[in-house]
Specification:
The protein is of the alpha/beta class. Helices cover 41% and strands 20% of the residues. It folds into two domains: 114 residues, Alpha-Beta Plaits (2-Layer Sandwich), CATH 3.30.70; 280 residues, TIM Barrel (Alpha-Beta Barrel), CATH 3.20.20.450. Helix 1 crosses helix 2, helix 2 crosses helix 5 and helix 9 packs parallel to helix 11. The chain is elongated, with a radius of gyration of 23 Å. The structure holds calcium ion.
């Protein structure tokens, strides 16, 4: 099997062509009517090719796509498929077939709107890098790992902030690409300096279609960087809604079969938290920012105490994220939280001089949420052998070793 992802949705960022013939497909009559009247108002004609299939030949297709998106409701725009074809010889039947798998008008419009980000994906090595935030033991303040966070700069060196990049990628359907770039970039950059510490890497479960295939690039990147798979901790944010717990379980099982560790991010932020915790029994549980920063508030303390009790019962560790004050750190430690991360312990930093000089990090503490689904990859270096099949059996010895080493 090929070791890259050629031909996969994560291999490159799809774009909406600017010239050619715009083909719109909709099964809803009044949506087609709205599109035709928009075209009339703009002095162009949407030619009906077949029932539900409309075609526009023109030079300003990007503008029409953007206007069509604004004209329709969000629900309508999700139903309409839009594509620009540059081959005049495609028959209607073939067009219809292609239109069925074309992106939604919402995504096509986002691809037009965020076309300025495409050069980033054309030159991944140059335009993406990772910054790394230390993770420490709360008891001894010893650094046991780093969370990798993806950052981007345009080819001419201007920073593209995460709060712009990630929402744009999601809207344009580029999340798969960005997730893969995040995992491989985290490893590529960490290989230059990471010792035996763990590397925490974010991932989005829906970007992993089939773990044994989709994670091959990640494993290759680890090999090339000289990072052991046992150093990796893959963390999934609950902020990126998990609709299919069975799928996430399979992804976790795969990571563990490869001797990696898994973490749940933002625990306490959603209604499904405890269900996910009990079901998945992640090696490391990362407490949600709002819960941590409310400490030592009585209710937040009760939430943290409950999560600590459950997690320790199966042998996992609890990590307080976004710790910004000594009071929060002390309160978390008193409640039995094992690990800490946040500006109080250290900011995310580029570890390569080339990037450190060009990318200031960051604007304000509230402006960048480290838990953004930024495809950061986490490596966990502990050196133990393959873990047994369950978290309860496998996590306790290796993880508790982290605390006493
Ligand atoms: Ca994270």
């Amino acid at each position: 099997m090929a070791e890259d992802c050629a031909g996969c949705v994560c291999s490159s960022a799809d774009r909406t062509a600017a010239t050619g013939r715009l083909v719109l497909a909709t099964a809803v009559d009044h949506t087609a009517t709205a599109l035709r009247s928009l075209a009339l108002r703009r002095g162009v004609r949407l030619e009906p090719l077949a029932p539900g299939l409309l075609s526009l030949q023109g030079t300003d297709l990007a503008q029409f796509i953007a206007e069509a998106r604004r004209e329709l409701s969000s629900v309508e725009a999700e139903e309409v498929r839009a594509m620009v074809v540059d081959r005049p010889d495609l028959g209607d039947a073939l067009l219809l077939r292609q239109a069925m798998s074309a992106p939604t008008l919402t995504a096509a419009s986002a691809r037009v709107e965020h076309a300025d980000l495409l050069p980033l994906f054309d030159d991944e090595q140059r335009c993406f890098h990772s910054v790394y935030q230390p993770i420490v033991t709360l008891a001894q303040r010893r650094t046991i790992g780093y969370e990798a966070l993806l950052r981007a700069t345009t080819p001419d060196g201007a920073a593209v902030w995460p709060d712009v990049l990630f929402p744009a990628a999601e809207a344009a359907g580029w999340t798969h690409v960005l997730d893969r770039v995040g995992r491989t970039t985290a490893l590529r950059d960490a290989g230059r300096w990471l010792g035996e510490e763990l590397l925490f890497i974010n991932f989005i479960p829906t970007s992993i279609y089939r773990p044994e295939v989709c994670l091959r690039t990640t494993e290759l990147a680890a090999r090339q960087a000289g990072v052991q798979l046992s150093q990796l901790v893959f963390e999934v944010t609950e902020g990126h809604q998990v609709h299919d717990l069975d799928h996430l379980q399979r992804v976790f099982d795969y990571y563990r079969s490869r001797n990696c560790k898994v973490a749940l991010d933002d625990l306490g932020a959603g209604y499904s938290s405890l269900n996910m915790l009990v079901r998945l029994q992640p090696d490391i549980v990362k407490l949600d920012k709002d819960v941590v920063q409310a400490l030592p508030d009585r209710v937040s303390s009760a939430v943290v105490a409950a999560i600590v009790q459950i997690t320790h019962a199966y042998g996992g560790l609890v990590l307080a994220e976004c710790v910004e004050t000594a009071e929060q750190a002390a309160a978390a430690a008193d409640l039995g939280v094992d690990l800490g991360q946040g500006w109080f312990f250290g900011r995310p930093e580029a570890r390569t001089p080339r990037r450190a000089a060009t990318v200031p990090e960051p604007r304000a503490s509230s402006s960048i949420d480290p838990s953004l689904p930024d495809a950061a990859v986490a490596l966990h270096v502990s050196g133990q052998g393959p873990r047994p099949g369950t978290a309860a059996e496998g996590s306790a010895p290796g993880l508790s070793g982290l605390l006493v080493r």
